Amino acid sequence: MGACVNDYQLKLGDHEYVPIVIGGMGVDISTSELALEAARLGGIGHISDAMNQFVSDRSYGTNFSSQKGKKYQEFAENPDKSKVFFDLDHVREAQLNHVQNTMQRKSGSGGVFLNVMEKLTMHESRETLQTRLLSALDAGIDGITLSAGLHKGSFQLMAEHPRFRDAKLGIIVSSVRALKIFLRAAQKSRRLPDYVVVEGPLAGGHLGFGDDWKDFSLRAICQEVLSYLSENDLNIPVIPAGGIFTGGDAASYLAAGAAAVQVATRFTIAEEAGLPPEAKQAYIRATEDEVTVGSISPTGYLMRYLKTSPCLGSNIRPQCQTFGYVLSKEGTCAYIDAYEETGLDENGRKLSVCGKICLCHHFAKSTCYTCGHYVYRLKDTTNLLPDGTYQLPSAEHIFLDYQHSKDGKISVPVN
Fold first, then answer.
1. What CATH number should be reported for the domain whose range is 5-404?
2. What's the average model confidence in pLDDT over 112-137?
């Protein structure tokens, strides 16, 4: 029998973890409950600060989104959103609500980290990003993973915080080139990242690749990163992500020099995950030919999603006065442009917007089914029930299966 994940440990500083990291899936798919289960079991779980005011409104009774919507109601029909801004006090309070509430409930020897996306520019990218980072540190987060961008200035934004050198800080990259750019920028703060997540082309959500994504492989990129770090005497743990579907897959990366693995797709259908039940069932029922990669996101990144996503063909008016998380510094968004260019039918109704979706609205509604490449294998990880639906496994079951299974085997939950 081959090795299993349980034969290895992840060491970050003086702390040791089970080398399983649950990725930070937004918006609130990686819930506090999901992250807390990973921490209880000795691994690392992420929460995400994607659309953190909306998450705070839904989970903690605030009304930041409606306040912003009312304040900027006059811009609802105006494609020029240059005067629509977030209230930084609300950004901070929302982050504190989510992180503090999570950390106060933490148990076990593992960690709870926060996934922070640079591409959520929020019109004032530097100001809003710094507010999100500093308030997460204030709230006691164990670690921060910098995602969706190169984050060349993010360490500097945190450098004066008293926890800057204590909290675990990492970066997600998809190439050695991206890692080099980040490391050069990080020299200004005289601090290396505590870990590097290497995300391959089979990952879910937004991808760090172009149209040639099929030409790349996670194993090859991981080896390139490991070699680069070794050649430069940089002792930074490497954590591969994207397409690691079984415990056997995970163990093979650990045997090749990875410090841990980051996994997400199998946890999208966990009882503790934040997707609505109908979306979880759609993920499980998905077939391989329903999985596609396209440019529907207004961020400019390619995104992997299911062709059955209810968001496709939508003609929703841009929701920037309420949300606006991907507005550029000029107050623009690719979806606004696509919406304005879309004509009307013979009855004067807006036709379906082609090419882009209102990402904020559809992520809030969980109608954009972003997914990892192997989502179509989820039906092999659980049981078909008599009523025609599939059993939803617990996060503990999935975690332990990754930790202890060998040779590509998958343990389905007890029915």
1. 3.20.20.70
2. 97
